Amino acid sequence: MSALFIGLMSGTSMDGIDAALVDLSTTQPRLVATHVYPYPEDLRSRLLEALRLEDPLSADLSELDDDVGAVFAEAANALLKSADTPASAVTAIGSHGQTIQHAPDAPRPYSLQIGNPLWIARRTGIEVVADFRRADIEAGGQGAPLVPAFHATLFRDTTETRAVLNIGGIANITVLPADPAQPVTGFDTGPGNTLMDQWIREQRGVAMDRDGEWAAAGRIDSELLACLQADPYFQRVPPKSTGREHFNLAWLSTCLEKAGPAARDVQSTLCELTVLSIANAIRQFAGDTRRLLVCGGGVHNKELLRRLAADLDPLEVESTRNYGLDPDWVEAVAFAWLAKQHLDDKPGNLPEVTGARQPVVLGRLFKQG
């Protein structure tokens, strides 16, 4: 078996696909090549429409599923071309797909990702492992977060308790106790970038608040912040997970008066919500943490990280780059790793994180035929 795997990941921002070519021949993954493949604007619009469906399971999403799968395949092929690597050199692709709805607490729990894996396999000539969340949910878990087992493999250290913070659209933490006998834990803390991204796109027509400059220019509105923090999700005890179907502009609007704060003050308040929900979660459930390793797109938001470091002082806040892996590529590499776990018939979930009854092998294998 080749040690080369591809990880494909698209998060809640729905701006495109992160494709990573990874050498998994040793415990420390080696990032061979990366490629960011933007969604065509019309496809992104269709995905956003799908997000607004009241019951996506009853809708016919087959055409969208195929179209997203085709773009995932294009991302993988573009990655291979840029790396001058033949498809035959890659053992498998781990594809997260695009989440349409995550509902682990529904009467019939589910998590729906689209991006037809058969299309990816046929158009790349590489076997695909996908549908990672289903097995954990069927075992009674949340189906999320799924990266803590990978975080533990890379970043755990017996000399200090660490936490890994992934700030994607949603923020999640993995707690890595120094004592090997203590279990790894983790959960979604709440919104990461998603509310800030959605708000600035609506107000200013741009994809993100670069460096957090707009948030830094505003002031925190205490009444709005208190209203947002009153959401029951923040008081729930782990295991727990969430998504954009909960934290979105409709949710925000319930706390905004007609004559509410200025737009940049809302942005500043949303930044503070992300900071406080993360910091409070660490204080409550990871109080022994000595070092926080940050990854995900939020690592580039200087204002967010400035506030977070100040709130958590004297805890050390660092990028995962300092510990061997580029923060922009941790999740894509994680899904390459999860694909290898599947082929090795090894569990990919952590029951202490997701609430599942037992460890299970994650994903299903899709071949060309």
Description:
By secondary structure, the protein is α/β, with parallel strands linked by helices. The chain folds into 2 domains: 4-143 and 333-366, Nucleotidyltransferase, domain 5 (2-Layer Sandwich); 148-323, ATPase, nucleotide binding domain (Nucleotidyltransferase, domain 5, 2-Layer Sandwich). It is 37% helix and 20% strand. It has 13 helices and 13 strands. The protein has helices at 41-51, 62-83, 117-124, 134-138, 148-155, 194-204, 213-217, 222-229, 249-253, 263-285, 302-312, 330-343, 351-354, and strands spanning 4-9, 16-23, 30-38, 90-95, 98-103, 110-114, 128-130, 162-167, 170-176, 185-191, 291-295, 316-319, 364-366. It has a 6-stranded mixed beta sheet. A 5-stranded mixed beta sheet has the order 10-9-8-11-12. α6 packs antiparallel against α10 (263-285), α8 (222-229) crosses α10 and α10 (263-285) crosses α11. The longest helix has 23 residues, at 263-285. The chain starts with a strand and ends with a strand.
Q: Which terms would index this structure?
A:
369 residues, alpha/beta, 5-stranded mixed sheet, 6-stranded mixed sheet, Nucleotidyltransferase, domain 5
Quick take:
The chain has helices at residues 41-51, 62-83, 117-124, 134-138, 148-155, 194-204, 213-217, 222-229, 249-253, 263-285, 302-312, 330-343, 351-354; strands spanning 4-9, 16-23, 30-38, 90-95, 98-103, 110-114, 128-130, 162-167, 170-176, 185-191, 291-295, 316-319, 364-366.
Which percent bin holds the helix content? Answer: 25-40%
Order the strands across the largest sheet as they lie in space.
3-2-1-4-7-13
- Tally of separate domains: 2
In whole angstroms, the N-to-C terminal distance is 20 Å
Question: What can be said about the biggest beta sheet?
Answer: 6 strands, mixed
